[in-house]
Amino acid sequence: MSVADPVLEALRDPHGFVSGLILNAALILGVIVFEWSLIEIAVVYVIEVVIINFVFLSVALFTPQSVDDRDGDVWNTKPTPLQPVSQLPPIYWRNVKFVGHKAVFTVVFIGVFIGGFRNIVFSSPYFASGVPLSIGVAIAGIILFQLRRVWQYFIIDQSYQNKSPLDAVQFAFAPVAELLFMLFYVFVPVTFVVVGAAIVMNVDVTSRLVLLLYLVPMGAIRAWIGSLDPQTDDLEIRFG
Protein backbone atom coordinates (compact mmCIF):
# COMPACT_ATOMS: atom_id res chain seq x y z
CA MET A 1 0.00 0.00 0.00
CA SER A 2 1.40 3.38 -0.99
CA VAL A 3 1.29 6.50 1.16
CA ALA A 4 -1.41 7.97 -1.08
CA ASP A 5 -3.78 5.00 -0.75
CA PRO A 6 -5.28 5.98 2.64
CA VAL A 7 -5.82 9.54 1.40
CA LEU A 8 -7.58 8.33 -1.74
CA GLU A 9 -9.73 6.01 0.35
CA ALA A 10 -10.69 8.93 2.59
CA LEU A 11 -11.69 10.99 -0.43
CA ARG A 12 -13.85 8.16 -1.75
CA ASP A 13 -15.76 8.18 1.55
CA PRO A 14 -15.58 11.89 2.36
CA HIS A 15 -17.98 12.29 5.30
CA GLY A 16 -15.39 11.96 8.05
CA PHE A 17 -12.81 13.79 5.95
CA VAL A 18 -15.07 16.81 5.45
CA SER A 19 -16.11 16.81 9.11
CA GLY A 20 -12.46 16.89 10.13
CA LEU A 21 -11.83 19.82 7.81
CA ILE A 22 -14.81 21.66 9.28
CA LEU A 23 -13.55 21.16 12.82
CA ASN A 24 -10.11 22.48 11.93
CA ALA A 25 -11.68 25.36 10.00
CA ALA A 26 -13.37 26.29 13.27
CA LEU A 27 -9.94 26.58 14.89
CA ILE A 28 -8.73 28.78 12.04
CA LEU A 29 -11.87 30.89 12.40
CA GLY A 30 -11.17 31.20 16.10
CA VAL A 31 -7.67 32.50 15.40
CA ILE A 32 -8.78 34.99 12.74
CA VAL A 33 -12.11 36.21 14.10
CA PHE A 34 -11.95 35.60 17.85
CA GLU A 35 -8.18 36.10 18.15
CA TRP A 36 -7.54 32.78 19.82
CA SER A 37 -4.00 32.19 20.99
CA LEU A 38 -2.12 28.95 21.45
CA ILE A 39 -3.72 28.65 24.89
CA GLU A 40 -7.27 28.53 23.54
CA ILE A 41 -6.29 26.06 20.81
CA ALA A 42 -4.58 23.81 23.37
CA VAL A 43 -7.63 23.94 25.65
CA VAL A 44 -9.96 22.99 22.80
CA TYR A 45 -7.66 20.13 21.77
CA VAL A 46 -7.46 18.71 25.29
CA ILE A 47 -11.22 18.99 25.72
CA GLU A 48 -11.61 17.16 22.42
CA VAL A 49 -9.35 14.35 23.66
CA VAL A 50 -11.42 14.09 26.85
CA ILE A 51 -14.69 13.95 24.89
CA ILE A 52 -13.38 11.32 22.48
CA ASN A 53 -12.11 9.14 25.31
CA PHE A 54 -15.27 9.53 27.38
CA VAL A 55 -17.57 8.68 24.47
CA PHE A 56 -15.69 5.69 23.08
CA LEU A 57 -14.48 4.24 26.37
CA SER A 58 -18.11 4.38 27.54
CA VAL A 59 -19.21 2.52 24.42
CA ALA A 60 -16.51 -0.08 25.08
CA LEU A 61 -18.36 -1.14 28.23
CA PHE A 62 -21.28 -2.42 26.14
CA THR A 63 -19.34 -4.52 23.61
CA PRO A 64 -19.74 -8.25 24.35
CA GLN A 65 -17.11 -9.76 22.04
CA SER A 66 -13.73 -10.97 23.29
CA VAL A 67 -10.46 -9.18 22.69
CA ASP A 68 -8.54 -11.48 20.37
CA ASP A 69 -5.04 -10.92 21.71
CA ARG A 70 -5.95 -11.27 25.39
CA ASP A 71 -5.25 -14.47 27.29
CA GLY A 72 -7.06 -15.77 30.33
CA ASP A 73 -10.34 -17.44 31.17
CA VAL A 74 -12.16 -14.13 31.38
CA TRP A 75 -11.82 -13.68 27.60
CA ASN A 76 -12.42 -17.34 26.73
CA THR A 77 -15.82 -17.63 28.36
CA LYS A 78 -19.16 -15.99 27.83
CA PRO A 79 -19.20 -12.61 29.59
CA THR A 80 -21.45 -11.99 32.55
CA PRO A 81 -23.75 -9.05 31.81
CA LEU A 82 -24.56 -6.32 34.29
CA GLN A 83 -27.52 -4.04 33.67
CA PRO A 84 -27.64 -1.25 36.27
CA VAL A 85 -29.93 0.83 34.02
CA SER A 86 -32.75 -1.11 32.40
CA GLN A 87 -33.09 1.38 29.53
CA LEU A 88 -29.48 0.76 28.44
CA PRO A 89 -27.80 -2.38 27.10
CA PRO A 90 -25.87 -4.48 29.62
CA ILE A 91 -22.26 -3.78 30.44
CA TYR A 92 -19.62 -6.41 31.21
CA TRP A 93 -17.34 -6.54 34.22
CA ARG A 94 -14.35 -7.70 32.19
CA ASN A 95 -14.85 -4.66 29.97
CA VAL A 96 -14.89 -2.38 33.00
CA LYS A 97 -11.46 -3.64 34.05
CA PHE A 98 -10.14 -3.50 30.49
CA VAL A 99 -11.36 0.07 29.94
CA GLY A 100 -10.11 1.16 33.36
CA HIS A 101 -6.63 -0.04 32.47
CA LYS A 102 -6.70 1.81 29.15
CA ALA A 103 -8.12 4.98 30.71
CA VAL A 104 -4.91 5.46 32.68
CA PHE A 105 -3.36 6.98 29.56
CA THR A 106 -6.06 9.64 29.36
CA VAL A 107 -5.75 10.46 33.05
CA VAL A 108 -1.99 10.88 32.72
CA PHE A 109 -2.38 13.02 29.59
CA ILE A 110 -4.89 15.36 31.22
CA GLY A 111 -2.88 15.44 34.43
CA VAL A 112 0.27 16.50 32.59
CA PHE A 113 -1.61 19.24 30.76
CA ILE A 114 -3.31 20.58 33.88
CA GLY A 115 -0.10 20.41 35.88
CA GLY A 116 1.99 22.10 33.22
CA PHE A 117 -0.40 24.73 31.92
CA ARG A 118 -2.84 25.37 34.76
CA ASN A 119 -1.40 28.74 35.74
CA ILE A 120 -1.10 29.86 32.12
CA VAL A 121 -4.68 28.90 31.25
CA PHE A 122 -6.33 30.36 34.32
CA SER A 123 -4.30 33.55 34.11
CA SER A 124 -5.34 34.10 30.50
CA PRO A 125 -7.66 37.12 30.14
CA TYR A 126 -9.63 35.13 27.58
CA PHE A 127 -10.94 32.88 30.37
CA ALA A 128 -11.19 35.58 33.04
CA SER A 129 -15.00 35.71 32.87
CA GLY A 130 -15.61 32.03 32.25
CA VAL A 131 -15.69 29.93 29.10
CA PRO A 132 -16.11 32.19 26.03
CA LEU A 133 -19.04 31.57 23.71
CA SER A 134 -16.72 30.73 20.81
CA ILE A 135 -15.05 27.98 22.87
CA GLY A 136 -18.47 26.67 23.89
CA VAL A 137 -19.58 26.48 20.25
CA ALA A 138 -16.38 24.63 19.34
CA ILE A 139 -16.96 22.12 22.15
CA ALA A 140 -20.56 21.59 21.03
CA GLY A 141 -19.34 20.89 17.50
CA ILE A 142 -16.83 18.35 18.80
CA ILE A 143 -19.52 16.57 20.80
CA LEU A 144 -21.87 16.36 17.82
CA PHE A 145 -19.10 15.09 15.55
CA GLN A 146 -18.06 12.35 17.98
CA LEU A 147 -21.66 11.30 18.63
CA ARG A 148 -22.10 10.93 14.88
CA ARG A 149 -19.05 8.65 14.77
CA VAL A 150 -20.37 6.55 17.65
CA TRP A 151 -23.69 6.21 15.87
CA GLN A 152 -22.02 5.29 12.59
CA TYR A 153 -19.64 2.65 13.94
CA PHE A 154 -21.33 1.25 17.05
CA ILE A 155 -24.99 2.18 17.51
CA ILE A 156 -26.63 1.83 14.12
CA ASP A 157 -28.19 -1.64 13.71
CA GLN A 158 -26.85 -2.43 17.21
CA SER A 159 -23.46 -3.10 15.67
CA TYR A 160 -21.82 -2.82 19.10
CA GLN A 161 -22.99 -6.39 19.71
CA ASN A 162 -20.41 -7.56 17.16
CA LYS A 163 -17.60 -5.45 18.62
CA SER A 164 -15.00 -5.96 21.31
CA PRO A 165 -13.91 -3.28 23.78
CA LEU A 166 -10.64 -2.96 21.87
CA ASP A 167 -12.58 -1.75 18.82
CA ALA A 168 -13.86 1.23 20.78
CA VAL A 169 -10.52 1.84 22.48
CA GLN A 170 -8.90 2.22 19.05
CA PHE A 171 -11.18 5.19 18.42
CA ALA A 172 -10.39 6.64 21.84
CA PHE A 173 -6.66 6.58 21.14
CA ALA A 174 -6.86 7.96 17.60
CA PRO A 175 -5.77 11.43 18.86
CA VAL A 176 -2.41 9.84 19.72
CA ALA A 177 -1.85 9.07 16.04
CA GLU A 178 -2.88 12.62 15.20
CA LEU A 179 -0.40 14.00 17.71
CA LEU A 180 2.48 11.91 16.36
CA PHE A 181 1.73 12.82 12.75
CA MET A 182 1.42 16.50 13.62
CA LEU A 183 4.66 16.41 15.58
CA PHE A 184 6.75 14.91 12.78
CA TYR A 185 4.98 16.27 9.70
CA VAL A 186 3.79 19.68 10.89
CA PHE A 187 5.52 20.98 14.00
CA VAL A 188 9.09 20.14 13.03
CA PRO A 189 9.04 21.25 9.35
CA VAL A 190 6.87 24.33 9.92
CA THR A 191 9.03 25.45 12.84
CA PHE A 192 12.10 25.03 10.66
CA VAL A 193 10.53 27.15 7.91
CA VAL A 194 9.28 29.85 10.29
CA VAL A 195 12.56 30.18 12.16
CA GLY A 196 14.53 30.08 8.92
CA ALA A 197 12.39 32.79 7.34
CA ALA A 198 12.67 34.98 10.41
CA ILE A 199 16.47 34.68 10.51
CA VAL A 200 17.48 34.56 6.85
CA MET A 201 14.89 36.92 5.38
CA ASN A 202 14.49 39.08 8.48
CA VAL A 203 10.73 38.62 8.27
CA ASP A 204 8.58 39.73 11.18
CA VAL A 205 6.26 36.77 11.61
CA THR A 206 3.25 37.57 13.77
CA SER A 207 1.95 35.05 16.27
CA ARG A 208 -1.38 34.81 14.45
CA LEU A 209 0.31 34.05 11.14
CA VAL A 210 2.44 31.40 12.82
CA LEU A 211 -0.65 29.72 14.24
CA LEU A 212 -2.24 29.66 10.80
CA LEU A 213 0.89 28.15 9.29
CA TYR A 214 0.57 25.32 11.80
CA LEU A 215 -3.20 24.92 11.64
CA VAL A 216 -3.56 24.52 7.88
CA PRO A 217 -1.43 21.35 7.54
CA MET A 218 -2.73 20.13 10.89
CA GLY A 219 -6.21 20.32 9.42
CA ALA A 220 -5.26 18.02 6.56
CA ILE A 221 -3.82 15.44 8.96
CA ARG A 222 -6.76 15.62 11.35
CA ALA A 223 -9.25 15.30 8.50
CA TRP A 224 -7.42 12.25 7.18
CA ILE A 225 -7.20 10.57 10.60
CA GLY A 226 -10.85 11.41 11.28
CA SER A 227 -11.92 9.72 8.06
CA LEU A 228 -10.19 6.43 8.88
CA ASP A 229 -11.73 3.49 10.67
CA PRO A 230 -9.35 2.51 13.50
CA GLN A 231 -10.82 -1.01 13.40
CA THR A 232 -9.21 -1.63 10.01
CA ASP A 233 -5.58 -1.78 8.96
CA ASP A 234 -5.75 1.92 8.07
CA LEU A 235 -4.95 2.85 11.65
CA GLU A 236 -3.82 0.63 14.47
CA ILE A 237 -2.95 1.94 17.93
CA ARG A 238 -2.17 -0.24 20.90
CA PHE A 239 -1.25 0.52 24.50
CA GLY A 240 -0.53 -2.47 26.68
Automatic annotation (TrEMBL):
InterPro entries referenced in this protein's UniProt entry, alphabetically: DUF6498
Name of the protein in its database record: Uncharacterized protein
Membrane-crossing residue ranges in chain numbering: 16-36, 42-62, 103-121, 127-147
Keywords: Membrane, Transmembrane, Transmembrane helix
